[in-house]
Amino acid sequence: MTEKLYDLNGRARAFSARVLSCAEKDGKWAVELDRTAFFPMGGGQEGDQGILHGVRVTDTVEEDGRIYHLCISPLPVGAQVQGTLDWELRFARMQVHSGEHIVSGIAHGKWGCENVGFHMTAEGAVLDFDRELDARQLRELEEEANRAVWANLPFRVWYPSPEELAALSFRQKKELRGPVRLVEIQGIDRCACCAPHVERSGEIGLIRLSDPMRHRGGVRLTLRAGLSAWQEDFRLARDADSLCRLLSAPRTGMPEAVQALQKRMEEQKAALAAAERRYTALLLDTAGETEGDLCFFLPAETSPAAARELCEQGGSRCGGICAVFTENPAGGWRYVMASGSRDLRAESRALNAALRGRGGGSPGMIQGSAEADREEIGALFHGKQIG
């Protein structure tokens, strides 16, 4: 049985141990030790990485109560080895996991939320509560969580006796067997957990909650804490500075600058739509009416809405098919076709074959793309061609 040095001392990072077994496993070597500071995957937290006797450990797992260090090369059974954690990675994970205990404890105490899912990622963690929280509650939750961080509260980790455990209330996700390890933050949370944590809440530094979404009757959040929260804030600040330069506005004036930009864009969009309507009206006047087909060729800048409107109006001015082809910047054409006398959905397969295209729609109108050149298109539609 491996002695778990991390169990009551989350800051243990270097140790000596004896190799109990070593066997190949999925291209790695699973090394079992008589004692370890490497935490195996569990409780939503990934397994530790580091070095054993100069050999890289890429992960740590627990199977059937036995802890295995997955190494890139074998270690001799019986050898005495030195182990060193990748402490920066472990500490960043401890910050996130400890931050989750604070957030879950506050949400449980204030609104009765149960933590029904917790999974750590490279950027932080995904956290699921069984109740929905609105924007005001989430802001309140984040603020109170950070106030708990700034209070620098101690984390207590211990195995209570069966009698003591029976008298205690604590959060738990499932029925527990054997000795129960509790993690307590005074006045905030008491929870059964197997993972290592910081010694005091101040080590977490910062907690950020983002990306709330409804999930199975509750809410799913992204939680960042410590290093991951700082890294995200740094990225956001850098992006904000870039936007300030692009908008020629101070940070405090960014919302107003964006609103002004949106207004200008809407005005330009309206002006462009009006210009397109005038352009298509001129094309229709030029085309007049015909008993045969009517075919328009438009530049790539033409909007799909303008092409569709031209096709609909052109369809009422011809006795055959009104086809509108808009240049595709990537090559070929985008097309829309309308007819009041022919079932275009029934003819779409033959039309697409002739145009080396694909598309479909309703009996009165089809849309798609085509690779045919202008001469091939002209040979297919025997009527007026405009553009």
Question: How do the helices and strands line up, and which of them pair or pack?
Answer:
Elements: E1 3-4, E2 14-25, E3 28-33, E4 35-36, E5 50-52, E6 55-63, E7 66-71, E8 80-85, H1 87-111, E9 115-120, E10 125-129, H2 135-150, E11 155-158, H3 162-167, E12 182-185, E13 189-192, E14 207-215, E15 218-225, H4 227-247, H5 254-287, E16 293-298, H6 304-315, E17 322-327, E18 333-338, H7 344-355, E19 357-361, E20 365-370, H8 374-380, E21 383-386
Textual characterization of the structure:
The model has no long low-confidence stretch (mean pLDDT 94). The longest helix is centred in the last third of the chain and has 34 residues, at 254-287. A hairpin with a 5-residue loop joins strand 17 and strand 18 (333-338). The protein contains eight helices and 21 strands. The strands form five sheets. It has a six-stranded antiparallel barrel. A six-stranded mixed sheet has the order 19-20-18-17-16-21, sandwiched between helices. It has helices at residues 87-111, 135-150, 162-167, 227-247, 254-287, 304-315, 344-355, 374-380, and strands at 3-4, 14-25, 28-33, 35-36, 50-52, 55-63, 66-71, 80-85, 115-120, 125-129, 155-158, 182-185, 189-192, 207-215, 218-225, 293-298, 322-327, 333-338, 357-361, 365-370, 383-386. The protein has 387 residues and is an alpha+beta fold. It is elongated.
